[in-house]
Amino acid sequence: MASHSESIIREPLITGKNITYAQITNEVLNPVENKPNKAWWIGFVVASLGAMLWVVSISFTFWFGLGSWGLNKTVGWAWDITGFVWWVGIGHAGTLISAVLLLFRQNWRNSINRSAEAMTIFAVICAATYIVAHMGRPWLAYFCLPLPNQYVLWVNWNSALMMDVFAISTYFSVSLVFWYTGLLPDIASIRDRATGLRRRIYSILSFGWTGSVKTWQRFETVSLILAGISTPLVLSVHTIVSFDFATSLEPGWHTTIFPPYFVAGAIFSGFAMVQTLLLVTRKVLGLENYITMFHIESMNKIIMLTGSIVGVAYITEFFIAWYSGVEYEQYAFINRATGPYWWAYWSMMSCNVISPQLFWSAKLRRNIKFSWALSIVVNIGMWFERFVIIVTSLHRDYIPSSWAMFYPTWIDVGVFVGSIGLFFTMFLLFIRVLPSVAMAEVKLLLKTASEQSKKKLIDEGHLEPAEVQYYKESLVKYDSVDMSQYEKI
Amino acid sequence: MDSNKTYWKGLEELNRTPEFVEKNKHEFAEPIPIEEVLSGGGLSAKTPRRDFLKALGFGVGAVTLAACQKVPVHKSIPYLVKPEEVTPGVANYYSSTYEGSAILVKTREGRPIKVEGNPGDLLSKGGLSAQAQASVLELYDNNRVKDPKLNGNTTGWPQLDKYVKDELAAIKASGKKISIVSSTVHSPSTLAVIADFILAFPTATHVTYDAVSYTGIIQANKNSFGKAVVPHYNFGNADVIVSFGADFLGTWISGEEFTTQYVKNRNSKSLEEKKMSRHIQFEAGMSMTGTNADVRLPIKASEEGIALMNLYNALTGTTLPGSKKLTNANADKAIVLAAKELLAAKGKALVVAGSNDVSIQTLVNAINSLLGSYGTTIDLDAPSRQYAGNDTVWAQFIADAKAGQVDAVFFLDANPAYDYYNTKEIEAALAKVRVKVTFSDQADETSALCTAVAPNHHYLESWGDDSAIEGYYTVMQPTINPVGNTRQAEESLLLWSDNAVKSYYTYVRNNWDTNLLAKGGLAGQAGWEALLQKGFINAAPVAAGTYSFALDLNAVAQTIISQSAKVAAAGKFELQVYQTPAMRDGKKANNPWLQELPDPVSKVTWDNFAAMAIADVKEMGLEEFQVITIKGANGYTIDLPVLPQPGQARGTISVAVGYGRTSAGLVGNNVGKNAFPFYNLLNGTFQTVSGVSVEKTSDIFPLAQTQTHSSFEGRTVIREATFTEYKKDKAAGIGEEEHEKYDLWDKSDDDASHARPVYDWVMAIDLNACTGCGACVVACNAENNIPVVGKAEVARRREMHWIRIDRYYSFEQNGEAKTDGRTGMVTKEKDIAKLQDFDNVTVVHQPMLCQHCDHAPCETVCPVLATVHSSEGLNQMAYNRCVGTRYCANNCPYKVRRFNWFNYWNDSRFDNYLSNEHTQLVLNPDVTTRFRGVMEKCSMCVQRIQAGKLKAKIEKRPLADGEVKMACEQTCSANAIVFGNRNDPNSAVSKALASERTYYVLEELNVKPGIGYQVKVRNTISELHA
């Protein structure tokens, strides 16, 4: 990484005075090396109760059959595939942050990539549970794998569901490897500070990291290669998920705009989820200096951009439905907006298209509480988007005699709410055992892109005063910068 | 090059020391310590070899023992001595009879599993009603009485016989009355048995009591022409049919027979000849027949008589006293037009009325006489014997019983405790009767009031015969040994009357030998065997004579007017009690197939309801399914949910009978409410119309409908034309020109993979023939082991039927804006919401099943290739491969795929329907039952195709057209469905599909459906729409 000083006009990625490498390690490993605090316990109990609900709901479904869900002959997918697509979409931000931003040398990713990648993995796990759970005979899920067998049974490569199996499994394995590779130096740090059994465990987990130059060199190379492999996945996975709909005949599904629209929506919801998680994590774990207002604002900008893309996609869909002249397609869209599920459509529209536009206001996108609330709104909106696409398309398609309504049962709700519980249980366990910020990568920025290094440059006084003034002004928005030290300058 | 070098391993070898030489003498240079191990420390090591072997031995033994746990043993016992004619895996067919129709009973390994029509049957030409299709399931009904009962306790036949014979002897001595109460018996042998019984006990009488009575027609014919019969109608000879509340395609007298006749003048063949009958229906509630009418007008039930008077006036130009206008002005207009039509079709016209009122039927007779219908469309000389109930005689029996004059009563196929309107009266009457015997094999409501139950055989266990129409005789033969300890009612009567013939089989034989065989030109044993093969005989036809009506109509008109006024005065609403084609009079209420069969009009399953006009529903501020309390003149009240019914006459409520059974069995108990008590006895007949008062309640009682959206939204799914348009252009209504189609696949490749070398199975469905009765649904259920899921699951839209009948309404708005290219027709939901007048509704029925698309959208999306195409054009399901993603069902534009949400065959919640150990015997062994989590759908009865091909192959001949019939096709009396091989240009289906009227549903999707539909043609009256 860059060894020279970064331009003064760039906003700092790490704030705080006199931060040392040791301090970063201490602060980041604080939750890993100490007993959990009360806030964590409260969160963990709530999340585990949710996970228990998931276990109960899934067990009930497996025992009695899919009839315990609210599906019917007309609406064959509802909360299940809504939940699946929602979780897969959420996962996308993690990959985007870790891979695409790495390739584009967006160093601000270094503070958030670890948590975002963890989120990806847990979200994909949640999504994968839906793949199995929505099957009528989940014990035969292995039929979906192209296993050689004496019956010469093979899978159908034409089916988007088949592509899905591969998209999701590839995505999960690559994300896992990428995440774990990035973890290696940090695990080694924990190992070096730990004693006894913990040391042995972290020692095994660190794969014998030595910290030699050669190790670091290889680490950098592998990271780049994995970023290269992951980048197409950011686009391909949700494209393939969108094929589940786009390659069908269903009015409202059979749409060529789906791949880009789904990818944008995925990044949209993924960043919202990163916000939801990190805004709380940075406060509770005291990581304000590493996850700064710059990060929050940057992510809010991405949310605004992708939200707008999604909005354009919604409008384009409407236009194309009209332009196509296909009466079924036209009806499907009019029915979305004005039919029995109008409330779902307008929830989606207001949450996904209208609310992110509020981020045009700098004040709002720098408001932490507002950002957090909006990140929740966005994910509600994205859930409704999938619900609208799936249920309102299916419930009234070609043959009016079969038109029907979908009413969820408590099991439908239990599986979905439970999956959120499962997700948070995994996330909360993660921040207890592994560093939630990539220490090694953050340390890379300390000498260049940190507030203290820039302060040092200012203090050395070789800079244009106008640039310094510009820099000072950009610091005002930070909630973690002590502005008093800049008064004299 | 050979090497002569010598390599040595060590200095010892080079030097050849004595030690080295000594060692190398042996095989091993160093000794192997075997002895040491065997003798020394080897055995005392930490885990000695013996201990190891002990542990191994014990381990293997323990595991072996643990593995010896018993696995469930399924015993299948092979035939020790193979019964003659029974080959496992091969079905046997026996001819028999169901309610006078000749049928074939399919048996497998000795158990009847399906009832099929006999193609030679006089009545329905091989078609069968839904009830007939479902009748096989009743054989295995768990609720059947398995043993005779005396005073509520199970007993044996000898004890029961002794009791009855002792009592009968005592009654005979005392000279008190004995009554045999039965619903109409049209079996010659049964009638002879009853006659013999009466000979033995001269005080005995035979009282015929029909829950749904036709006494009005019988009495009217007696008064008008001196013939106390239900005539044999011939709708096939009628060019103009005007019906006043007669559901003649469904429940009126002989629905299946009338359907075959009716469709003859409306099907493809008839249309090709540019011939189509015109059917005008005036009725209060929307009946299945009404849905098929070319012109249908709602009139109040109490105004049926007045409408007939107006018709008479219009036909004759006179005015009957008391004539007045109808409430519905359009109906008056239509009556004038109908009169014009009828006069123009004199001699080829038919007017029928559903009323059971003598005066109304007398007026109908007068009109038909005017139109010259007797001898052409009405036959009084070979009359129907299907209904002979006499309400007056029945009323007299109750009066006698109440007076204590009757000492013994025998109930044969009669359940008055449920279906007689005055339950209290029948209870009071029966309390005075000492000996009450029922032959019912169902523990029904009447059985509970009886002293003895002598359970009858099911008809599939019985010998017998039938004669539904004069001159047409059918034979009934058993197809299984009795399931329970039952005895045929006729045999009981023979035994109790000490008849010389003790066995009913012998009795039937004797009766045929002496009286009947000769009529069919048969004789002796050979004749009897020929009869059993064929199933029926036709006596030499008697020419239908002409009759003319000569009574004075003034008195008739007066009665009609006064009765109508009486109903109108009794309450704000008129209640019309009707039968649904599935449930009829409720005798089969315990049949889950029938309970789950959607009503042809309302699509409601598992309930009856109060059908009300939409205008009335709005006026009263009612919601759909809101419960109302209906109170009859006699104080009887029921709570029923409201169903807003398009086409229902304002001010009327229609409620179906056959529901509200309290003692039908686990399936039928407390399903709906009993509407029989709204009957009243007036002028000697049961009246089905009465004045009622209605009160709102705040309850909502959702009904389980299989279809909730009734508008086809103007989509080309349904295509219609008027007969006038059709005459101009045979392709009228077909709609747009051919769509331009694109194909992603390489054509040559396409041809190779989609080759249909021998057969290409397709289907043609004529919307103009389908009446929407739903017999095909039940036939398919029986053939394909389709689970019954119950009300709660149907309400969740999870019925499993592989074939369904879609029913769409559209409305005529005179002078209103066009909506979908058809003048004045409103089909779209958003327009219907604004509609005020729901009177002029037209209905179309569309059978919908898997279309077996050549480019099947379900096939491409299945991840595991569980649904694939056959080389014969079938879309097939490999149940074992299905993992249940349901993508195929989502992607099916026709929504015909059905998912097994639960394990319907092994789940206690569904035990009452088909999966208990008795009812499971009805399953077709050629079709597997499906496990939970698996998708299923119409297979085009692939088991039938395979069986047909196999038979042809064994006989070394090609499969003939029409040899393989689909279950739905076979049972359709209207012949609306034709199945066959498209590769054969001469096959019936190829010819049907070649019709200009053929269109394919959602053709524009290019899924290439294998089922072609023929445009619905309506013979509307253009003047009515002016």
Structure commentary:
The complex is a heterodimer of chains A (489) and B (1026). Chain A is mostly helical. Chain A contains 17 helices and no strands. The mean pLDDT of chain A is 89. Chain B has 1026 residues and is an alpha/beta fold. Among the domains of chain B are: 153 residues, 3-Layer(aba) Sandwich (Dimethylsulfoxide Reductase, domain 2); 135 residues, Barwin-like endoglucanases, CATH 2.40.40; 262 residues, Alpha-Beta Plaits. Helices cover 30% and strands 19% of the residues of chain B. Chain B has 35 helices and 42 strands. In chain B, helix 8 packs across helix 14, helix 12 packs parallel to helix 14 and helix 15 crosses helix 17. Chain B is globular, with a radius of gyration of 36 Å. About 0% of the residues of chain B have low confidence. At the A-B interface, helix 5 and helix 10 of A face strand 32, helix 29, helix 30 and strand 37 of B.
Give a quick rundown of the structure:
Chain B: Pfam families: Fer4_7. Chain B: InterPro entries: 4Fe4S_Fe-S-bd, Asp_de-COase-like_dom_sf, TAT_var_transloc_signal_dom. Chain A has 17 helices and no strands.
What is this structure's SSE topology?
The complex is a heterodimer of chains A (489) and B (1026).
Chain A (H helix, E strand, L loop, with lengths): L20 H13 L4 H27 L14 H25 L5 H25 L26 H34 L2 H10 L7 H34 L11 H27 L8 H32 L2 H12 L3 H13 L7 H4 L2 H28 L14 H24 L5 H8 L4 H10 L4 H11 L14
Helix pairs in contact in A: 1-15, 2-14, 3-4, 3-7, 3-8, 3-13, 4-5, 4-8, 4-14, 5-6, 5-7, 7-8, 8-9, 8-13, 9-10, 9-11, 10-11, 11-13
Chain B lengths: L10 H5 L2 H6 L10 H6 L9 H18 L25 E7 L2 E8 L2 E7 L12 H10 L9 E2 L2 E2 L2 H18 L2 E6 L5 H13 L3 E5 L6 H11 L4 E4 L6 E5 L10 H10 L3 H5 L5 E6 L4 H5 L2 E4 L5 H13 L12 H16 L4 E5 L4 H13 L7 E7 L6 H12 L3 E7 L3 H4 L3 H9 L3 E4 L13 E2 L10 E6 L2 E5 L12 H8 L7 H13 L7 H11 L1 E3 L15 H17 L2 E6 L13 H4 L8 E2 L4 E3 L1 H6 L6 E6 L5 E8 L7 E5 L23 E3 L2 E3 L1 E12 L3 E2 L14 E3 H6 L18 H7 L7 E6 L8 H10 L5 H6 L8 E9 L12 E2 L2 H4 L8 E8 L8 H5 L5 E3 L5 E3 L9 H5 L6 E2 L11 H5 L19 E2 L5 H13 L12 H5 L5 E5 L6 H6 L4 E2 L11 E4 L1 E3 L3 H4 L1
Parallel strand pairs in B: 6-7, 6-14, 9-10, 9-12, 10-11, 14-15, 15-16, 20-25, 22-24, 30-42, 31-41
Antiparallel strand pairs in B: 1-2, 2-3, 4-5, 4-16, 8-13, 17-18, 18-19, 20-28, 21-29, 22-25, 23-24, 23-28, 26-27, 31-39, 32-33, 32-34, 35-36, 37-38, 40-41
Helix pairs in contact in B: 5-26, 7-18, 7-19, 8-14, 12-13, 12-14, 14-21, 15-17
InterPro entries (chain B): 4Fe4S_Fe-S-bd, Asp_de-COase-like_dom_sf, TAT_var_transloc_signal_dom
Organism (chain B): Mucilaginibacter pedocola
Protein name (chain B): Molybdopterin oxidoreductase
